[in-house]
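Researcher: Structure prediction, please.
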Amino acid sequence: MLIAFILMHLTDIPANLLSLGAVDFGIIVDGAIVMMETILKKREDHPGEKLAESNIAGRVGEVARPIIFSTIIIITAYLPLFAFERVERKLFTPMAFTVSYALIGALLLAVLVIPGIGYALYRKPRKVHHNKWLEKLIEKYYLMIQKVVCKPRQVLIAVAIVFFAAIGLSISVGKDFLPNLDEGSIWLQVNLPPGISVERSKEMSDTLRARTMKYPEVTYVAV
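Model: Predicted structure follows.
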């Protein structure tokens, strides 16, 4: 997030609800979690050995490319927001910039900083603690994955059903991004003379309300 705020400052993007409202910290820390997990897996496989820099570098090389490409895919999903114009551009483009900046910073942290921290913490031999409940869940998950892999036709049929159902819904659902709304409301903005007293402004406000309520289409007036 620090890198995101620095880039927001350099590109004159203010920090507000529109720009920061869609920042998902789960997506941001995902790469760092994967990188640290692969280092921990190396320590669990060899608990009594001292880890060398080459071991960490090998692990980093295994997961660095998937992390980079997954981050690029997420950033690519926000590219259509940069094509908006007028009101849509003001609403969603700052969010797209902020999320992209945060993901770039998270990618640099996961690839450049986390491996060094993992090496400093886990290079020495240490006792590995196992979670029995988690190991049981992993075994059940592995068995389920094996059953799914052994029946690819059923999986493809289910995916095809979901895909065509999504196409059918996309055809039937409306396509307006920001549709015109007619709520039956009228916004009146009245400019009073400068230096008018509070009593006089209240009197004019009551007069405006009374004259507006003379129309049968008007049900209420909020001032």
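Model: The chain has a mean pLDDT of 79.
Researcher: Thanks, that helps.
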